[in-house]
Request: fold
Amino acid sequence: MKALEDKLQSAVVAYLKLKYKALHCASLGGQYQKYHS
Reply:
């Protein structure tokens, strides 16, 4: 059972990292467009 929990946890962490990276890129892109329009 422990292995399953570990897999689930690492999947959640990976998902959150992806989500954060996407948000971060989106906000950077928004700032970039603001300054360079």
Observations:
- The helical segments are 2-35.
- Residues 2-35 form the longest helix (34 residues).
- The mean pLDDT is 87.
